[in-house]
Amino acid sequence: MKLFEGCLLACDIDGTLQVNGEINQRSIEKIKFFVDEGGNFALSTGRTACAVNDVLEKLLDYICPSVVGNGTVIYDFKNDKLLSEVKIESEALSFVEEFYQRFPSVGIELHSRKTPYLLRTNSEIEAHGLYEHMKYVPITLDSIKKHPINKVLFAYEDFAVLEELMIYGKSNTDIVEFKHTTADLGGKKRHYIEMVPCGISKATALKSLCKMLEIKNGAYFAIGDYYNDLEMIRDSDIGCFTADAPDELKAQADYIAGLGADGAVADFIDYLTEKFRQ
């Protein structure tokens, strides 16, 4: 039997696997080793299915069905196939118009499976689209409900405005959740607020993925760098945070790797390799 047969390694992208558009070469080699040893390597990201092509260019042959859109979609990239999805209810999409009017400077993307719809742009949306190589499709407020929307993303350079939007949203509806996510783009940490269906997260989707892939007991691993990774790392059998994750998160990890840019994923695979060879 191969070393990692029946195992799943769930990996966040931004800040963990990839930093400023680059994946550490040592991490690439270790991922290949993990898969060659029978392991399943899955992306687990806030990005949607249309926004991971830069990663797929380097690792497609080694990526199993993956969790995208912060758990709203499980997608098989090798076969270009949607395996499962959770959509935002029509009632909740009505709030997008309210946000559009109340926060006129905030950029708004709506993600539907592999299609990124653009409701309103700004400099942060432009940087986000460029970084994730997305080709936006324009959309209007009156056509939003015609599409299966999995996630809505709000972007603005002043986080205080995004925080106000998130607080307002949480105070006025309980049928969706609002998550704070980040990405390092152009040497700058960017902040986003994402609106997703209630009760959906990377962790809930990964539970489903473990069943799909028939992952054996004790063989689910996860690595991330931020708060939206905490639940999947808590649920995993062996969880890892990167060195630059907030201290309160690192305190809950089984292992702390180095920086994402320096090969945190490679560090974690080395740790798992040593542990499984004992």
Structural features, described:
By secondary structure, the protein is of the alpha/beta class. The chain has nine helices and 16 strands. Helix 7 (230-235) links the parallel strand 14 (220-224) and strand 15 (238-241). Helix 1 packs parallel to helix 9 (264-277). The radius of gyration is 18 Å and the shape is globular. The mean pLDDT is 95.
Question: Secondary-structure map with pairings?
Answer:
Layout: E1 8-11, E2 18-19, E3 22-23, H1 25-36, E4 40-43, H2 53-59, E5 66-68, E6 73-76, E7 81-85, H3 90-102, E8 107-112, E9 115-120, H4 123-131, E10 137-138, E11 151-155, H5 159-172, E12 176-185, E13 188-197, H6 202-213, E14 220-224, H7 230-235, E15 238-241, H8 247-250, E16 255-256, H9 264-277
Features:
single chain; 278 residues; alpha/beta; six-stranded mixed beta sheet; 9 helices; 16 strands; 33% helix; 27% strand; globular
Widest beta sheet: strand line-up: 10-9-8-11-13-12
The unreliable regions are none
Measured as a percent range, the helix fraction is 25-40%
Secondary-structure content class: alpha/beta
What proportion of the residues form beta strands (DSSP E)?
Answer: 25-35%
Order of helices and strands: EEEHEHEEEHEEHEEHEEHEHEHEH
Mass-distribution shape: globular
Average pLDDT, rounded to a whole number, is 95
What is the oligomer described by this structure?
single chain
Total number of beta strands: 16
Could you describe the largest sheet, including whether it forms a barrel? 6 strands, mixed
Rounded Rg: 18 Å
Helix count?
A: 9
Measured distance between first and last alpha carbons: 15 Å
